[in-house]
Amino acid sequence: MNLKELYQEIILEHGKNPRNLGKVHEFNKDAKGHNPLCGDNVHVYLKLNGQKIVEDISFEGSGCAISMASASIMTDLIKGKNEHEAKEIVEDFLGMIKENPDLKSEYLKDDEKTKLMCLSGVKQYPMRVKCATLSWHTLTSAMDNSKEITNTES
User: Fold this and answer.
1) Which ranges constitute the DSSP H helices of 24-147?
2) Centroid of chain to Cα 149
3) How far apart are the first and last CA of the chain?
């Protein structure tokens, strides 16, 4: 299996069987996001403990396979990280999707980088970049306690 096939398989698996789908019990931060161009909607729920470690994270939403797979992968990777690490991972991912060829965060293991890199192909399709990044921008809004709906067109 070549790398492109592996990446497609990971996206399809997370798109069909998203991880951490639903509402976190006793969440203490949340945010909503919307992509009006294709109709993707996401609601990210976080449970941070006193040390600002993500004890739990989940999402609810609807959208294309890229949007759902990206949210699923994001929740898998962010769980257990502290807020600083999570924000660095978000910045690294957004940089990789938009311009950088690879991920640089020291907070990601090699297998986690592989999962994120499977979304790198969307940079060839500008409309799909918004699908892949919606949940990540929404996570940032949740961590920052923003009550405005994250909108890909704002």
Assistant:
1) 65-78, 83-98, 110-117, 126-143
2) 16
3) 40
H or E element at residue 10: helix 3-16
Instruction: In whole angstroms, give the CA distance from residue 154 to residue 14.
Output: 27
In 3D space, the residue among 34, 32, 56, 67 whose CA is nearest the CA of residue 142 turns out to be 32
- Give pTM, 2 decimals: 0.93
| 77 and 91 Cβ atoms separated by less than 8 Å | no
Question: How far, in Å, CA of 146 to CA of 140, rounded?
Answer: 9
DSSP 28: -
Query: Would you call 76 helix, strand, or coil by DSSP?
Result: helix
Q: 60: closest CA among 79, 97, 78, 34?
A: 34
**Closest to 44 (Cα-Cα) out of 11, 83, 88, 75:** 75
- Look at domain 3-143 and name its CATH class: alpha beta
- Given a contact cutoff of 8 angstroms between Cβ atoms, the answer to whether 39 and 67 are in contact is no
pLDDT for position 3: 67
pLDDT tens profile 129-145: 999 999 999 999 999 99
Are 127 and 37 a contacting pair, CB within 8 Å?
yes
Percent of the chain with pLDDT over 70: 98
